[in-house]
Specification:
Blueprint: H1 16-23, H2 27-35, E1 42-43, E2 49-50, H3 53-67, H4 72-84
Antiparallel strand pairs: 1-2
Length: 87
């Protein structure tokens, strides 16, 4: 019998190619969003990017907002408000 416990939704386990596929975004878009502060990926000790399932959900939302006409500053504000809701 195995004692394996799957990682939770906050575990930073996905490399950028998988995160891009899960979110429907190009890897370079993920890097740009990380660089401008829209999302914050985890980092390995070697500096590699890692995302969680929760990050994937956020990235899908971030992808939809500009498609609806919202600018990046508006997207930042929506993300900030979303983070306040659980608090």
């Amino acid at each position: 019998m195995s004692n394996f416990i799957p990682p939770g939704p906050e575990a930073k386990v996905f490399v950028i190619s998988i995160a891009a596929e899960l979110s429907g975004l190009h890897p370079q878009t993920l890097r740009t969003y990380d660089r401008i502060g829209l999302v914050a990926a985890g980092r390995t000790t070697g500096g590699g990017r890692r995302d969680s399932l929760r990050d994937g959900e956020l990235l899908r939302m971030v992808a939809q907002l500009p498609a609806g006409g919202l600018g990046l500053e508006g997207v930042k504000r929506v993300i900030a408000l979303e983070k306040q809701v659980p608090a």
